[in-house]
Records
---
Amino acid sequence: MDTLKKITGACVLLSVGFNAVCSAQVAPNWDSMAAHYQVPDWFLDGKIGVWTHWGVPSATDENRPNDGSHYGRRMYGPNEGETGGQLKMTQDLTDFHTKRYGPPSEFGYEDLVPLFKGENWDPEGLVEFFKENGAHFVMPVACHHDNFDMYDSSHPWNSVDMGPHRDTLREWKEAAYKHGLKFGVSTHLYWSPRFFKTGRKYYEAGTLEGQLINMDFDPKGYVSQDSWNEHWYARCWEIIEKYDPDLFNNDSPYPSQKTGKNLGLKLFSDYLNRDLEENGKQDVVLSFKDGRADRRAFTYNLERGSSADIQPEPWMWATDVSGGWFYRKGATNRMSIPVMIGNGIDAISKNGVVMMNVALRGDGTLPENQAAYLTAFGDVLKINGEGIYGSRPWNIYGEGPLKMKGGRQGENHRAFSQEDIRFTTKDGNLYAFVLAQPTEDIVIKTLATGGVLEKEIRKVTLMGSNEKIKWKRSKDGLTISLPETLPDQPVAGFKLILE
């Protein structure tokens, strides 16, 4: 593939597999992106999204011993340097694969692709279910680390030519738009050259199977390999051009400024410029997981983590309700339903947006235990959505003994108590969410007279109830008498109408 060729300062023409972006407003650098990037209201107001991991790993034996998202990496045997629990997981899966399907030398990852049929997949029915339970956007995985595209791709290993023989991105988007949801995509492609590292001994470059295993790229030095970085850009840009997503999530590293010809920031700024040129304003969301980057320039994907306080820039709490990202029958979510709901409201109180991953079976159906998480959150949103959708963080996020750890991979699994309160605000009203069903009078110390809340409280109501709520405010806090009847839910939401 030819490299980039600069034509003028205002227009960069990208050769075969690339796109021309002219009269660019956003330059491919952090300062320009930070100066121009704006999170659209639909994302800030919508608050709830559903992420879907579905692909070849979904169709492997559901009784496999461990995480299916890395089946292709582990099935070929241990990687150099693996020790402890990771080494055991890999060896267990290699042994399982050999017993179940045959030695990797005889039954490789490519032989799993025909097992992925999606014969019962109903994207319209799934999107309708997501919407019924509060989702305002959906974000399917376009390509995971296994290098298999879930769309009509120029890459030969794709879901149109193989597997289910369907353009799943196109069908997800059509279903999303039919039901009034925004449509996002997630790509995990950049890890791909190293993913099948231990399987390379079974393949040859120049073959169809070799393309799946990425035999054309260096498994160690791919980050500095121009051919790989250009290949990554072309594959990602193809998704943007063909499917015009409202949200683009890059769930892996990207070509750096030093070793990758800056094609990462080039892709991201081109995505924003494309939207500006088509719509006259930015109406898309760009997200990824680089915690070291300038968060004014994109929407930070805080996967399986939490925020200790209100963040100045909107962010995404991305979590998984399946227990393993891709479907596996024995996977369990260590986060209970009440805790997941509390974590979600905590994120929203801190300027976050919730993105819950579900892992479909290989046939395309949603497992009942995962559906239960969405239904439970949906029930809460049906009653308390007034204080969630369209809301913004208040002066402080809340109070209580459960303190969240800031950062990725520190997701809370502890139960909340009725002392854990979270706030949002909308239309001049203050909303207080008690993150466990209260069993006695509720005392909110933050709302004491002479404190953070300078306005007077005119009325307190319990969302989802017509009961007259008794309350009093003093120097010790706002005390809300325990209502006679509470919604049968893990949280209780109160609306405070202010003078």
---
Amino acid sequence: MRLWTIALTCAGPLLTTLPCPAPACILCNQVRVTQTLREEASYPSARLILYGTLGKARLSNEAPGKGETDFHIEAVLRTDPKLAPEFRKRKGDVLVLPHYLPPQKPGTPTRSLVFCDVVGGRFDLYRGVEVASPAAADYLAGALALDPRDSRRGLLYFFRYLDHPDKVVAQDAYMEFVKASDREVADAGRYLSAAKLRAWAHDPNTPAERLGLFAFLLGSCGGKEDAAWFECALANPSGRTAEAYDGILSGYIRLRPKEGWTLAVKLLREGRATLPIRLSAIRTLRFYQAWTPRESRTALLAALGAVLQQGELADLAVEELRKGQMWDLTEAVLALYGRKGLDAPIQRRAIVRYALCCPLPRAKTFVGELRKRQAELVSEVEETLQPAQR
């Protein structure tokens, strides 16, 4: 979304798009996470949310580069009832911004969403987002009316806007999916339109960062007619399908569990696929562990066991087993310690970390024996583990 290029504020700087934690949805790992409009509106400082157009801009005669601009309010999306009457703006009012903001294109009004507070008896307009049409105001009004506790209803609402012609709206709706948890995204998938998702998945212009999510969702609500597309994309990954491999594989497992898990195990056991593809497959395992750990347990153990056998990415498999508290493969994990080709520090530490967390007697015996030979290593790994992880 495009932010106004200068600060719209009387009392503070423009709040730009904020960096956020890593995406909640594992399948959206490639995406640069940004603040959504709904999150912006959740801040206490968003006491007024307005939609309108920038009007006449006037330069100051006293200070070069300074000036003011009329903002014509066309919709009031929020107004704090505690504000003094003079700060309660209505449709048709004109707000004078203390900055010179000429139109980007002469003769074309600049439509914007504005978030502001009142500080020290003055308007503090701290963020402006340029939008393409009044539809952005309708979209945000609908988003603000959603119950944040009803994630499924929320995602169904945002799904309707993923292909909206206003790019600000479409990107914001997509970011709501990015920020939803794996479970929330998966649970909403079966209620979505397979026809829309199918069209987006087949469209060569769909960016890779979205293709993975769309493919998984298609696997949740699609039918037999979609299997061929998944099989072709997984058999010949290239370009955007390679970048979105984790989402495509996740969708195929969702659509055809038996065939999908068989493919994942084979890919990880043989180790012939490129490293990025195998890492994508491990992200798929991570997604199912986060979403359906109990239902996927048998399949996850088979796939992670295949990684242990192949060896190259064994430390990643050991970490996934530890984090998921799956101790079934303890003997196989401990047998890797010191094995030729798997004796790098990162691999040794992963195995020691697993053994320290594992409650089985065999792991405790392993740690006791190792402590006699490499006490410093065991102590160092112990220090990296939080009490809750042990």
---
Amino acid sequence: MAVSTFKRGLRVPTRKTATEGKSVELVPPPKQVVIPINQHFGAPNQSLVKVGDTVKRGQVIADAVSPGPMTVPVHASIRGVVKKIEPRTQSNNSEGLCIVIETDNPAYEDSDSEFMAPLDPFTCTKEEALKRIRSAGITGMGGAGFPSHIKLSPPPNKPIDVIIANGAECEPYLTTDEAAMHEKPHLLIRGLTAIMKITGVKKAIIGMEDNKAPIIPMLEREIRLAQDEYFKGLGEIRIGLCRTLYPQGGEKMLITALTGREVPSGGLPMDAGCIVQNVGTLVAVAEAFTLGKPLIDRELTVSGGACNTPKNIRAPIGTLLSDLPREFMDIDYGKLRKILFGGPMMGFAVPTVAVPIQKNTSGIILMTEAETYATSEGPCIHCARCIRNCPCRLSPAIMNHSLEAGDLDESVKAGLMDCIECGSCTFMCPARIKLVQRFRIGKGRLRARQQAAQAQAVKQAAPAKN
């Protein structure tokens, strides 16, 4: 099988051996969960429950008051009583409103849950299928948290001819996508064929790095079974092998590697005729149709030198790592120096392990002093390493200089809004300049400026009051 890739990129240490090939372990039922009411990219939710309410596993506990297209509900991940509704630190290291649920009888009892009735995606209408995906609260599980039903509803002027299942998992340490492809290939193919039916697309590619090549025969078998059982003549699914290279799992990089197409500046995958879905998202889609199960559990990798029992786990959303018993998750707090939610290249550092697992939490990395560093920034030496290694072919040095000078417009010209925050520039910078953090702050300033301009425009357009 030919191996494809994109231009530039980095060869970073994968550090996956501690959990590679390990099956996913279900965590002991937690006595409490802390569930953020906003876990998606889009309009904010509001709590639908109050303190003292009893909730069931799978019950909707937060949604937009007037559900719009850019909203998805949040569900209770355990049965219990709402004890608190208060701001808590979340996985992006910011505070957000959370619903705290406690139970006196922790157990996974799906028989006493508020799941939906199963729905056949191959016989229902497109509208019913999209409604099911939204009702299940499914968002992109690769990191961004974009509502999945929106991705599957491109405008008529953006024709889609390729669906890409993203199983590249290029971040160091993380191995849950590999575990999903190894343990749940039937659900992966079921979810992939479901969205092919919903979108009417006849071609799909499962993209993975060549370090996961042993999984290929298993996936090929499931593809043959699907073609024989329920997907005969409805489309073609193939596997695309990519070079192990960071950030191969980025949407733009994967599209280029597998199709040769390029997402234009300021564009989205649909501008290249593609829809990209993480393999974990596809498994969640399959469960929403076959089981009626909303997205209430998350599979993730817990690893790093300060974790004595690195493993792939499945936990109810809202679980705190600090609540897991020591015999299941043994953390060496004496060695612990840094906690990352997500991978080491794109993840967020948080101050404590008492931060809830969310829908887009792909991993928690517990790092020792040897695995991380804390150094002062030096001056830019104009070496251009950040430019030479940027997979999006941007100019990080110019973007950084513009932001330091307070010139947002110049930073945008240099590519600020096209930056995927992969961390390649920061990794390569000999001056240890925290480039990605600067770009995240710059994007926030730009969004604040745009919102202020929009508010001013609305104010000026409103009729003067007498």
